[in-house]
Amino acid sequence: MKTSYYRLIITSFIIMGLAAPVFGQSSADEARKHLVRGMAAIEMAKSEAELTAAAAEFKKATELAPTMAAAWYNLGSVQSKMGQLKDAIASYRRYVILAPKADDAQLVNDEIIKLEYRLERASIELVFVKGGCFDMGDTFGDGLPNEKPAHNVCVSDFYMGKQEVTQGQWKAIMGNNPSHFTSCGDTCPVESVSWNDIQDFIQELNSKTSKSYRLPTEAEWEYAARSGGKKEKYAGTSSESSLGSYAWYKSNSGSKTYPVGQKQPNSLGLYDMSGNVWEWVSDWYDKNYYSSSPRDNPGGPSSGYAKVLRGGGWADNPRDSRASFRHALDPSGRYDGPLGFRVALSAR
Fold first, then answer.
1. What are 154's strand-pairing partners?
2. Residues 172 and 309 in one domain
3. Are 243 and 249 in contact (CB under 8 A)?
4. How far apart, in Å, are the Cα atoms of 76 and each of 16, 31, 111, 112?
5. How many domains in the chain?
6. What is the pLDDT of residues 322-332, one digit of tens each?
7. Which SS3 state, helix, strand or coil, does residue 71 take?
8. Which of 89, 122, 155 is the last residue of a domain?
9. Of the four, 16, 79, 207, 293, which is 20 to 30 A from 234 by CA?
10. For 23-54, what is each residue's pLDDT tens digit?
11. Same domain, yes or no: 193 and 252
């Protein structure tokens, strides 16, 4: 939606003149100053900081003159540019209420629909995970040295993404698709992403949704994969013969990814925590960390050379698909392979 700078200024002065009796001439004059400053700022804006400064001017104008339609329109426009979808929708709606007969009212309504669609595509379904204590690591006696010793860990309540983040969700937030299996479609997990790439995604996701998504910790991931800390070898079962009902892995994947949520979930209702794509978690990797891990909400070492991945992928055997199996890679590496993730959210 593009409206010329000068037309907006003229429109704003007309609206301000009509609205001045409603909120007082002094407030109108002051609001006009902020509106013009904001328009000048957005016209020249080339960075996020400059857009933020423009938004602050428009916000101040709406506070001084709540019925000033032009200020709401411009606030919505800059919020949309900044990816603040919910705020932009609210500002645009306010504009339409104040100026329902404006020439561009229908265009603004169309923009609201587009933003709502983007917000819906960006939304992530979460499952509440009641916190508790469990024995983390090799509890079956067939694990690798970095899964030992099994040790008691307690995690607080949190939310976990019901499914792996999809290609459609990544595209809605980032505007691109780094995946190798793009032909799989928007409902397939995004893959071939580095840990660092995911931090950029999460930052944009939080900006657009006004939430505080993050990667789960290694302890949270294993607790959730094992259906709330149960003694489960895989996510949903301990039987290798039934693993194919819960996971896409080497024996049944045909060497490719699949749309999320096609297999059975574990008893918490979480899908694909074994198989399909590996899932990055927040922790730095240390093969000996379990020997010194704190009991309550461990977050991993303070530094390291690699980040942890969990769950196995479509190319992996049952051993690597176990809930306790730990893999680690350079956080900057994209690796053309089944590396994806799901998000978590702390319970407040």
1. 133, 296
2. yes
3. yes
4. 18, 16, 10, 10
5. 2
6. 999 999 999 99
7. helix
8. 122
9. 293
10. 456 788 888 889 888 888 877 777 777 888 88
11. yes
